[in-house]
TrEMBL record:
InterPro entries: Glyco_trans_2-like, Nucleotide-diphossugar_trans. Gene3D superfamilies: Spore Coat Polysaccharide Biosynthesis Protein SpsA, Chain A. Residues 5-157 form the Glycosyltransferase 2-like domain. Belongs to the glycosyltransferase 2 family. Coiled coil: none annotated. PANTHER family: GLYCOSYLTRANSFERASE, UDP-GLCNAC:BETAGAL BETA-1,3-N-ACETYLGLUCOSAMINYLTRANSFERASE-LIKE PROTEIN 1. GO terms for molecular function: hexosyltransferase activity. This is Glycosyltransferase. It comes from Priestia megaterium (Bacillus megaterium).
């Protein structure tokens, strides 16, 4: 029975107990939960009821990429997932995603998801983006991030090929990693919505939207040549 490690970066988030509660309700049981306290000064008391169910790592503040890398390096699972401390997993998230990845021999996957508000109420239709082919994926993701990071599951061996998150990127470390992964591995999409992604005023993507826009340009330019060559290769294979 494969072990799945779920890394939960935590920095002053009042919803952390909701995230951890959703992990404890997973129907799949061979799960390792690693909470990385990235220098939090608030809401740490909400973790206390879960201490006997998690691996708890405390570190100085270094940003989300640093917290994720710390968790991945601590992980002993065969597969790695990431859950933000303000998001919620569907109870069957791990079970469905893992079974699908094993069935299709996938190393990297993401799922459909809903947006929820600060009260946890669903406020959107399913928002996941399914691509029609590897060429379609390359074309679309070369223009911007189409993967919700908290919907992913990655086989641990992937990191041996592409490395960890780039800690110099404060906001787009996930986008950069996805681009590196799809240069080597295929991406599987699971149409079942298995994540509730919370939208609220204090979330980083709202507070730092202008910085994210500029950092996106850096990531796109960093991978532009390789992605163009990859697209050309797949175009030629269809001719």
């Amino acid at each position: 029975m494969s072990k799945v490690s779920i890394v939960v970066p935590f920095f002053n988030c009042s919803y952390i107990d909701h995230a951890l509660d959703s992990i404890t309700k997973q129907t799949y049981t061979n799960i390792e939960t690693i909470v990385v306290n990235d220098g939090s000064t608030k809401h740490t008391d909400k973790i206390l009821p879960y201490l006997d169910k998690i691996t708890y790592v405390s570190k100085e503040n270094g940003g989300t990429a640093s917290a994720l890398n710390t968790g991945i390096q601590q992980a002993t699972g065969d597969y790695i997932c990431w859950l933000s401390s303000d998001d919620i997993y569907d109870p069957q998230k791990i079970a469905i995603q893992l079974e699908s990845m094993k069935t299709h021999n996938a190393f990297f996957s993401h799922t459909n998801y809903y947006a929820i508000n600060y009260r946890g109420r669903i406020i959107s239709p399913p928002l996941g983006i399914q691509t029609l082919s590897k060429l379609d994926l390359i074309t679309r993701i070369s223009k911007g991030n189409i993967i919700n990071g908290c919907s992913i599951m990655i086989h641990k061996d992937v990191f041996n090929h592409v490395g960890l998150f780039d800690e110099t990127l404060l906001y787009t470390h996930d986008y950069d990693l996805w681009l590196r992964i799809i240069q080597v591995f295929d991406l599987q999409y699971i149409s079942h919505p298995l994540l509730l992604s919370r939208i609220h005023e204090s979330m980083g993507s709202k507070k730092y939207a202008s910085f994210i826009k500029e950092e996106n340009k850096i990531v796109i330019n960093r991978h532009k040549y390789v992605m163009e060559q990859l697209a050309l290769r797949y175009k030629e294979s269809f001719e």
